[in-house]
């Protein structure tokens, strides 16, 4: 398949997406492929963290599930931005099983 044909097929596939999925796709590409989330060996056990922090995505997700608002999260973690939270929620949506496993592992350590 040549590049022109691949682009045409991609355009057709994108056109078939729902508006919400299309927006999500474009947001992801606008931010870059990593979505502001990184994993590093030796940092928080290799868990997905907000870029350039030691704040794991699973911690933010668990806090939200337990009722903490985004405003409260931003107050509690002054280095975070609203975009960081959007990136975290996108990551959770794409990797829920991983996040839930990390939460369970953390709770079993107590």
Summarize the structure.
This protein is mainly alpha-helical and 110 residues long. The chain has helices at 3-15, 19-31, 57-65, 70-76, 82-94, 96-109; strands spanning 37-38, 49-50. It is built from 6 helices and 2 strands.
What report would you give on this structure?
The protein is mainly alpha-helical. The chain has 2 domains: 1-33; 35-109, Arc Repressor Mutant, subunit A (Orthogonal Bundle), CATH 1.10.10. 63% of the residues lie in helices and 4% in strands. It has helices at 3-15, 19-31, 57-65, 70-76, 82-94, 96-109; strands spanning 37-38, 49-50. Strands 1-2 form a two-stranded antiparallel sheet. The radius of gyration is 17 Å and the shape is elongated.
The SSE order reads: HHEEHHHH
Going by CATH, the homologous superfamily of the largest domain would be: Winged helix-like DNA-binding domain superfamily/Winged helix DNA-binding domain
Tell me the span between the first and last alpha carbons. 54 Å
CATH architecture of the largest domain: Orthogonal Bundle
* CATH fold label of the largest domain: Arc Repressor Mutant, subunit A
Weakly predicted, low-confidence segments: none
Could you give the count of β-strands?
2
Oligomeric state as shown? single chain
Largest sheet, order of strands side by side?
1-2
- Given helix and strand content, the structural type is mainly alpha
Outline: elongated
């Amino acid at each position: 398949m040549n590049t022109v044909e691949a682009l045409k097929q991609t355009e057709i596939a994108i056109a078939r997406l729902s508006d919400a999925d299309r927006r999500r796709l474009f947001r992801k590409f606008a931010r870059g492929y990593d979505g502001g989330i990184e994993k590093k060996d030796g940092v928080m056990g290799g868990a997905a963290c907000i870029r350039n922090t030691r704040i794991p995505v699973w911690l933010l997700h668990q806090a939200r599930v337990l009722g903490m608002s985004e405003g409260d999260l931003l107050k509690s973690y002054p280095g975070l931005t609203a975009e960081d939270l959007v990136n975290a929620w996108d990551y959770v949506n794409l990797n829920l099983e991983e996040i839930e496993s990390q939460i369970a592992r953390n709770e079993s350590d107590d």
